[in-house]
C-alpha cells in the first residue's frame, strides 16, 4: 500500500510498471506449474550449471562386482590336529617316546618298531609317554591311531646291535607269558624272570642279567600285546612261552609271532598252538628254546 504523502512525482507511472511486472510473474508461474503437473516439461532444454570436482567421488553399488573380482567365497580350512612324536635314547638300548596329540584324547593306537606291534591309548590330554626295547639300531617308531592319523620318528640306538632279545606278541588281552630261567633256576626261585619278577634295571642304571618288558594296553577295543626278554649271552638261560588254557582259547588255536633280535638284525616267525579241549581249563601249554638257538619246541 502506498501512502500519498510519500509518493514521488510521477507515481502513476510507477504503479503501472509494477502492475505489469507482477502480472508477468504470475503468468509465468502458472505456465511452469501447468507444465510440471502435466509431466511434459522438457528438462533437457534447461541449461543447468555444471559443477566440477577436483577429485570426483566414486559411487559403487553394494551389489556391484568388480570385473576382476572372484564370485566365490574363500574356502575356510581348519587347521589339522597337530600330532608330534619325540624319541630319546634312555640307555640299555631302550627307546623313550613322548606323543602329543591334543585333539585325540583317549584314543586307541598302535606302536610299531622293527616288526613288533602293541596297542596303547592316549591320556585325556591326548598325550602318551612310553618306553620300549629297541630291536634295531635305527630306532624307528611308527604310530597309527584307530582313526587313521599317523606319526613317525627315529632315534639312533648304537647299543641296539649289542643286545640280544626275544619277543612274543599276540592279538588278544590274554595270551603268552615269557618265563626265563637263568643258571638252571627253579620256578619262583632267584633267577626265574617273568612278569611277576621282571628284574627291570633302575632308570639310568646298567642292566644286570636278563629282564622282561610287558607291552600293550588290554583295555583298548582291539588289544595287541607283547613281552620282550633281554638276556645275557654269557648266562645260561632257558626261555619258555607259556599259554594258559582258558574258556576263550580252549579247543581252538593260539596264534602269535616270535621275534629274535641279535646283532641289529631281527628274525620273525609265526607260531600257532593247538590248544587242549575245554576240560583242560587251568592247565598250560609251553613252547621253549635255549638261546642262542632260536629253535622252538613244545615243552612239558
Explain the overall architecture:
The protein has 300 residues and is mainly beta. It has one domain. The protein is 9% helix and 37% strand. It contains one helix and 17 strands. The strands form four sheets. A five-stranded antiparallel beta sheet has the order 11-12-8-14-15, with no helix packed on it. The chain has a five-stranded antiparallel beta sheet with strand order 10-9-13-16-17, with no helix packed on it. A four-stranded antiparallel beta sheet has the order 4-3-6-7, with no helix packed on it. Strand 14 (253-262) and strand 15 form a beta hairpin. The radius of gyration is 47 Å and the shape is globular. The termini are far apart.
Segments where pLDDT lies below 50 for 5+ residues? 1-67, 69-78
Q: How are helices and strands ordered from N to C?
A: HEEEEEEEEEEEEEEEEE
Order of strands, widest sheet: 11-12-8-14-15
> How much beta, percentage-wise?
35-45%
> What's the end-to-end separation, in Å?
145 Å
Number of helical runs? 1
How much helicity do the residues have?
A: under 10%
| Overall tally of domains | 1
Shape: globular
The Cα radius of gyration reads: 47 Å
Largest sheet: 5 strands, antiparallel
Q: Please state the average pLDDT score.
A: 80
Question: What structural class is derived from the secondary structure elements?
Answer: mainly beta
Total strands: 17
Amino acid at each position: 500500500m502506498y501512502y500519498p504523502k510519500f509518493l514521488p512525482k510521477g507515481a502513476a507511472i510507477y504503479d503501472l510498471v509494477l502492475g505489469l511486472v507482477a502480472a508477468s510473474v504470475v503468468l509465468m508461474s502458472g505456465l511452469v506449474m501447468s507444465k510440471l503437473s502435466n509431466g511434459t516439461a522438457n528438462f533437457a532444454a534447461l541449461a543447468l550449471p555444471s559443477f566440477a570436482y577436483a577429485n570426483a567421488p566414486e559411487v559403487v553399488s553394494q551389489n556391484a562386482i568388480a570385473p576382476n573380482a572372484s564370485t566365490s567365497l574363500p574356502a575356510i580350512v581348519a587347521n589339522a590336529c597337530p600330532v608330534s612324536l619325540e624319541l630319546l635314547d634312555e640307555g640299555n638300548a631302550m627307546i623313550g617316546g613322548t606323543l602329543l596329540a591334543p585333539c585325540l584324547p583317549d584314543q586307541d593306537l598302535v606302536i610299531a618298531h622293527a616288526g613288533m606291534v602293541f596297542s596303547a591309548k592316549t591320556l585325556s590330554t591326548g598325550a602318551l609317554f612310553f618306553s620300549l626295547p629297541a630291536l634295531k639300531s635305527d630306532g624307528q617308531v611308527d604310530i597309527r591311531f584307530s582313526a587313521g592319523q599317523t606319526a613317525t620318528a627315529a632315534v639312533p640306538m648304537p647299543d641296539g646291535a649289542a643286545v640280544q632279545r626275544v619277543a612274543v606278541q599276540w592279538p588278544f588281552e590274554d595270551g603268552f607269558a615269557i618265563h626265563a630261567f637263568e643258571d638252571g633256576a627253579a620256578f619262583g626261585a632267584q633267577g626265574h624272570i617273568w612278569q611277576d619278577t621282571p628284574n627291570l634295571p633302575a632308570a639310568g642304571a646298567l642292566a644286570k642279567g636278563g629282564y622282561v618288558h610287558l607291552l600293550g594296553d588290554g583295555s583298548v577295543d582291539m588289544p595287541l600285546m607283547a613281552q620282550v626278554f633281554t638276556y645275557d649271552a654269557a648266562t645260561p638261560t632257558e626261555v619258555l612261552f607259556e599259554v594258559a588254557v582258558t574258556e576263550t582259547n580252549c579247543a581252538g588255536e593260539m596264534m602269535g609271532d616270535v621275534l629274535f633280535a641279535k646283532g641289529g638284525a631281527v628274525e620273525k616267525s609265526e607260531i600257532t598252538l593247538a590248544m587242549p579241549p575245554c576240560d583242560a581249563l587251568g592247565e598250560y601249554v609251553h613252547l621253549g628254546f635255549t638261546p642262542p638257538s632260536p629253535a622252538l619246541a613244545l615243552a612239558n
